[in-house]
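Review form for a predicted model. The reviewer records the input and the model, then writes brief findings.
Reviewer: anonymous (R2)
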Amino acid sequence: MQTSQLLRGPRGSEVDLLLIRDGAVLTKKLIRDEIKQPNVTYSGMTEDGIAYIRLDKFLENSAQEVKDAAIALNKQQPKGMVIDLRYNGGGILQEAVKIVNLFVDKDVLVVTQRGRNPQKTVTYKTFSEPLFPKMPLVVLIGGSSASASEILAGSLQDLDRA
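Model under review:
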C-alpha cells in the first residue's frame, strides 16, 4: 500500500525508484501515466460457439465496452451470449439500462427509482432499437452481484429476455 501511494502523482511527472536485488542497487526513472482498468475484463468465444462477456463493474463507459465486445463477438455468429456479472458490486444505474437496451426493444420500462419524495421518482426506459433483439442470452450472477448488476439481471429476466 505504501509503495502504491508513493508511485502516484500527476500524469507525466517523473518518479525515481531505487531497487535492491541480490545486493545490487538499481535505479530506474519512471514517467507517471494514467492507468485505465476496463469494465469488461474478458470477452471471447467458447469452444461450442457461445459468446462470453465478463463485466466487472458498472462505471463510466461500461455499456459501450459491453456493446463493443458484443459487436465484435457477433461477427463470429455465436449461438448465444453469456454476460457474467458474478462478483460485480454494481455502479452506475444508467449503464445497466444502456446494456438492457442492447437486447430489449425501444421504449420499454427497465426500472423505476423511488424515494420518500414522490416527486423525485425517476423511470428509466430503453431509448433505441436493440442491436441483439433475438440473441439467446444468459446472465450469470452470484451472492456478490449487487446494485446495477441486479437491475440488469432482473430486468432481462422480467422482460423474458434472459
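Findings: DSSP finds four helices and eight strands in the chain.
Further findings: The two ends are 41 Å apart (CA to CA).
Recommendation: see findings above.
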